[in-house]
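Pilot study result, target chain (287 residues):
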Amino acid sequence: MRNRVIGDVEVSAIGLGGMPMSIEGRPDEERSIATIHAALDAGVTLIDTADSYHLHADDVGHNESLIAKALATYGSDTSHVLVATKGGHLRPGDGSWTLDGRPEYLKEAVKESARRLGVDVIGLYQFHRPDPEVPYEDSVGAIRDLLDEGVIRMAGISNANPERIRLSQEILGGRLVSVQNQFSPAFRSSEPELELCTELGIAFLPWSPLGGIGKAGGLGTAYEAFARVAQKYDVSPQQVCLAWQLALADVVIPIPGASRPESIRDSAKAAELELTDEDVAELSAAR
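Predicted structure:
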């Protein structure tokens, strides 16, 4: 599998998004662990999670704990796997989402994430989503403090606009390594952020790169161009979608969610799919 870089860490060009394994409709633990093991078998070395990827109020951090268990039971060395987690977005357990960007909260949340992941230092920690009740610079300042203290190795942000990317880069003293925003054929509004990340050399991690939970299967129907290119190469439209995103810039590392081994196996193959410039132009024009 082709590799890309986050900060100074080389990772696979396709990551694994863990959210579908821990929220509504989640599979049983056995299948989830099999999915993570299948990702590792396929060469995936970036796994994305968050403390808010859970279902009930009493299982906060479900996905972090699940990933830790999967890594521990894999049977081979996983020290090269980068687990990226996030804090600042919460689920009270009633299906809703809330925000808490207070520095004191984030500094406690990161400790709990490290405990669940079974690590002393978190490889990549990202501020999950801006909290309108807390100055953005205060929230990112807490991430800077964690970086300075060695609690986290690398720092990123999520759901950020260009202004906040530049502000975070300034607050972090040039140490911002990733931006995780929604981006897919159906959601193109993060193109300015992608362009800025390319300019600054910051990894851009598209979440829901196939359109989101429940929508990935219909990608080829909703966008005929992806089905046409898929037929040309005898691959799935989902592979074409991920390969298209990889072709947009060297900083792009899609993190498709998966809850079945066959899904992540198919997605991982996108790293080897070489599209022509004409393919990329056709896919980029599909709306």
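One observation from the pilot: The chain has eleven helices and eleven strands. A full batch analysis is planned for the follow-on phase.
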